[in-house]
Amino acid sequence: MNKKKGILRNAAEGYFAAFALANIGQIAAVDIISLVLFLMCFQLFLFAERKETESALSADGKKLVKGYSSRNRRVASVILGILFAFFYLAAEHGSLTGALENRLFQMIYLLMTGAGLFFLFYRGCRLLLLYLERRSLRISSIPVSTDSPEPALSLQTKLFLFLLLIACWLPWFLYDFPGVMTPDSLSQYSQAMGLTGYSNHHPFVHTLLIRLFVSLGNAVFHNVYAGIACYTVFQMIAMAVIVVSCISVLIRRRAGKKLCFCFLLFYALVPYNGIFAITMWKDILFSGVLLLFVLCIYRFLPIYREGRPLYQKPLLYLSFLLWGILACLMRSNGLYVVAATAPFLIYAFRKQWKLILPSLLVILGCAVLIKGPVMDSLGVAKPAFSESLSIPAQQIARVVAEGRELTAEQISLIGKTMDYPSIPDYYQPELSDPVKALIQYGHPEYLETHKGEYLKLWVQLGLKYPLDYWNAFVDQTKGYWFPGAPGMLTNEGISPNELGLSWQPVLHGQGVAKIVEIISKLYTIFPLYGLLYSIGAFTWAAVFLFTNCLLNGKKENWILFIPFFAVVLTLCMATPVASDVRYLYSLIFAMPLLIHAGLEVKGKYRRN
């Protein structure tokens, strides 16, 4: 009887899963493929249940033994299933109602799709967590000799890896010579060269780095493009050194040579890594610095676990302080990322909180001091207040663009900062810059002096039109938490500008351009490879790896995920673009570390 109930349950779940897949793929209900989908889902669920049963059987195979691991795996899979299904429906609900027009039928259609998505994600995560649990038990049972030396990369190997990365990125450098410069890059370049006043809208520290290397190149080569190339070469070297440092740490923590080789291929051959390495953006070095900061935390873990004071490694401790301060300064949300991570760090290293707390106060205090009094004394302008209002501005603009009813007082208040009739024409659901431009070219000073009134307006409209606010938020942020295609990816050469700078490719010609075009479009052709370009896919992977870390891995590694979750959350609070790879490149760049951290199993630590 129980067997029959199990078959019926799996058949029902398989039907909902097939319904969801058919809806997502826009497969007609009369299409024979819908039957194929049902049979595949049904068989997959039966297979998953059989594996669960085999895992729960006692040694004699006569009774089921369901322990804490089984319960925890089931609970974690339910949470992940609900979370991933919710993300999917939130992002794609507009296209998942079929051709139905009746609101009630649309809701039923969405609920059935949501149920199918839940069963797919729940069953898939549960099966994968089961396999990873078995892997963890198998690896942890292998005896490890405490006398075996720590694996380490030799200096020659590190140099080889460094040169390999540079060699793989070099064609992009020669093609985009002297480097990729977008409007943001050109704005920073103008500040660095003294053509415009300094502003911390783009991090001042990064602007100074540009000034240093461009000026050095100009002084040596007496050529503006050679100066820009000097900065580009510096960034390539810095990112290559960071990659080699990461792989070196992973090797020392026994990640495995095959796995590290795959990580190396990712950094070396996936095109956007090479293009970003030569792009004059703050986001690139910020990603490298944040990875170095997290690597310091990772190297602290075995020291803390053995009960040794963290300051026993003075160079590591000073590196932690340095990279923490730079992470705060290299991007506008860096300070918030470190501040949000701080309470979790104090908890993770609670037995040494008397050292960690002052250390974090030093990091945050130095960052606040530099971004405040120091930059004020140097005449560095602060970013416009409206730059931090991407989400609220988009939500209010969405209400206006939808033609909702507003009071004369509300219309007047909005009109005091921007041209009210122009809002519907300027509003773009996935880009806040046009609406912020309306404010900048309107009367931003009024907004600065009447923040309370606008906060009240924002709350009032949100309470009256919550669905518009929700839709505006989803459209503005979904690229970072839903696995879809990137809205913005990479650029080529130097964008058109009024500075007299132009693209100076060393590698050029129709053949080269065609090869670049093909390489750049491969992710739109090949499944699975395309996921490497999906920002949300990396977020989902991080969430799953974090869960596996807590269930089957070294639980102390959970702290390594927190800074990157903080980046995602800060983007959801203030991102200007719904899906731009560079804004979450820090997570993508650190994914090899997070993969190892999420899969690493319990075992004896080695001193580092």
Please provide a written account of the structure.
This protein has 25 helices and no strands. The chain is globular, with a radius of gyration of 26 Å. It is mostly helical. The C terminus is likely disordered.
The CA-CA distance between the termini, in Å, is 57 Å
Rounded to an integer in angstroms, the radius of gyration calculated over CA atoms is 26 Å
| Largest sheet, strands/sense/barrel | none
How much helix is in the residues? 55-70%
The topology string of helices and strands comes to HHHHHHHHHHHHHHHHHHHHHHHHH
Features:
single chain; 608 residues; mainly alpha; disordered C terminus
Task: Give a brief outline of the structure.
The protein has 608 residues and is mainly alpha-helical. Helices cover 67% and strands 0% of the residues.
Secondary structure elements and pairings:
Elements: H1 2-24, H2 33-56, H3 68-92, H4 103-140, H5 155-175, H6 183-192, H7 204-221, H8 224-252, H9 257-269, H10 271-277, H11 282-305, H12 314-329, H13 334-348, H14 353-377, H15 390-401, H16 408-415, H17 423-426, H18 433-440, H19 444-449, H20 451-464, H21 466-477, H22 510-521, H23 535-552, H24 562-574, H25 585-599
